[in-house]
Amino acid sequence: MLSYLCLNWVLLVLFTGPTVSELVVTGEVGQDVTVPCHYSVRDGNGITSMCWGRDRCPNSKCSRPIIWTDGWRVTEQHSSRYQLKGDLHRGDVSLTIVDAREADSGIYCCRVELPGWFNDQLINHKVVITKARISTASPHTYTSEQTSAPGSTSEPSFTVTRTWPSVSASEAPQTASAPCSGTSDCLDVTANLQNTSVSLPSQQQAEHGLYAGIGSCAALLLILILALFLT
């Protein structure tokens, strides 16, 4: 009966193994992520070896080991991105993942090898690495006024202001109050203004000639009437 109970206890321990705890650690891409793991050290004799693996803790050792330590120094290292930056002599065997990547997400096993059968300290960590958050705040925008129409070349706008001589409403030239839309339009307006300014003196000279002719005719008529009276 006693041998039967002992056999059942051995089988139970072999198949169930030691108790394993599990924690979740989150981090962002590009940052250093620390996966915690500690064990109690009372004196120098309590320092022991341990390993980190990329999978759940098996019955012995570490699956896919990435770093080992004998408790005093790192004895095996899969990559320089996996480091033990804690005080090993005090039982701080936390794993630091330098410059974390999304591919680093997964299950990590911290196995501290303690003396005795099935006494190892096992901790499974679920590491989740996400992309860095993007700020949703709208950036500051600066607007500037555009004087030319979109798609057109940058050309200055001209506004022509001219003082006209006193003429009748029918003879007054028609002027456009809107500014020029381009260099060619401004040139045309300037040419028209010059032609108009040249034609105005000629019109005034013609009017003076007309008045002089009428005066001459009136004088001749008056002389003719006086000659008839005299005769």
TrEMBL record:
Domain of life where this protein originates: Eukaryota
Region (Disordered): 139-160
Pfam families: V-set
SMART domains (alphabetical): IG (SM00409)
Signal sequence, start to end: 1-21
Single GO cellular component term: membrane
Annotated PROSITE patterns: IG_LIKE
GO biological process: apoptotic cell clearance; cytoskeletal rearrangement involved in phagocytosis, engulfment
Residue ranges of the TM segments: 209-230
Span of domain Ig-like: 18-130
Membrane association type: Single-pass type I membrane protein
Compartment annotation: Membrane
UniProt entry keywords in alphabetical sequence: Disulfide bond, Glycoprotein, Immunoglobulin domain, Membrane, Signal, Transmembrane, Transmembrane helix
GO-annotated molecular function: phosphatidylserine binding
Homology family: Belongs to the immunoglobulin superfamily. TIM family.
Protein name according to UniProt: TIMD4 protein
